[in-house]
């Protein structure tokens, strides 16, 4: 992302300058253990999840604790050390990271002004985020956020295709379309959404294109 920001940004000519804050996995944890625990909203992870190489049982469902860590520790630290604009924070995440972004969006949407959600794992726990969206709608009349969705064109099911990049059972494009449609149906006055399907890309290869388009969407150069 830093390289994309430098090349596409072109010293402010292509993108507005921004401060990039990257949060690594927890010290002492393997990356899979840390991301499964911190980015997922419930304990009900996939049954076929392989045991962690550390020997510890796989743990899911601490997204809310991680959200509070970002709000209570990361934000104050960054604000104290850099020339920030707290009203213009942008979240960017891919896969489980975008699932975590969806959790933040439906928990405390004003934590970020804009959300770049790339290939969100909305399938998690039998599409629990769709249920969370319905629950949010019951208690709120607005969702103040700007959201950019992106997903690879291979992240769907195409029966009869011999291309191994298509999924066999998991239709992430359909899940994302359902999520978008439900959000749009609420007619929240301060929610805006943009969405794109990245042609000829799969779950892993879509991200560089998605984040490039997301940055252009979120940080157009000031004229």
Show the helix and strand layout:
Layout: H1 2-9, H2 31-39, H3 63-81, E1 90-94, H4 96-105, E2 114-118, H5 124-139, E3 145-152, H6 172-185, E4 191-198, H7 206-218
Parallel strand pairs: 1-2, 2-3, 3-4
Describe the structure.
It is a single chain. It is built from seven helices and four strands. The protein is an alpha/beta fold and 223 residues long. The chain has a four-stranded parallel β-sheet with strand order 1-2-3-4, sandwiched between helices. Helix 6 links the parallel strand 3 and strand 4. The radius of gyration is 18 Å and the shape is globular.
The first-to-last residue Cα distance is 23 Å
Write down the Rg.
18 Å
Overall pLDDT level: 95
**Strand segment count:** 4
State which percent range the strand residues make up.
5-15%
The largest sheet has its strands arranged as 1-2-3-4
Look at the helices and sheets and give the structural class: alpha/beta
Given the C-alpha coordinates, what overall shape results? Answer: globular
Which sequence of SSEs, written as H and E, runs from N to C?
Answer: HHHEHEHEHEH
Ranges where pLDDT stays below 50 over 5 or more residues in a row are none
Largest beta-sheet details:
4 strands, parallel
User: How many distinct helices?
Assistant: 7
* Helical fraction: 25-40%
Structure summary:
This protein has 223 residues and is α/β, with parallel strands linked by helices. The chain contains seven helices and four strands; from the N terminus they run αααβαβαβαβα. Helix 2 packs parallel to helix 4 and helix 5 packs parallel to helix 6.
